[in-house]
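pinned: reference chain
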Amino acid sequence: MQKRITLFIGILINFIVFAQTPSGVWRSSVIIPEEIFQKFGFTEAQLKTDTEPQFPGGIHILRMTVADKIDLGNVKSSKDRLKTTLYFVIESDGKISDVISIGDNDDFNKEGERIIKSIKNIWTPAKLNGEPVRFIYALPLTMAFE
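pinned: its structure tokens
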């Protein structure tokens, strides 16, 4: 239980620090690496939107969903803190696709990908000029061990 609380606090801090702005202008702390947006089939111009996608119930429900689904039984590490950033596409129909993680620990990366792939909620898609569009979402995760 204490691990989940620590993870939840880490996720909360990451969401605050690395939050994406609703204006569609990317903040420097949430830059999508070029290899990621190219792998997902995006051009740099397609990274801008008028509105961002919304998780049903809001970002707090997404945080709680991630914290509830995490299973650290297969995550092995000698470090005190693990970090990964999950990149995934929210399609114009609100479904999640194309999940990739970048972090130092392969086990933690795989667990993050497993969690995102297990979320079946339909998002409200991002919009550009009033039309739903695909969107690359960046979700940083941090786990601190005590």
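why pinned: The longest strand covers residues 81-90. Confidence is low (pLDDT under 50) at residues 20-28.
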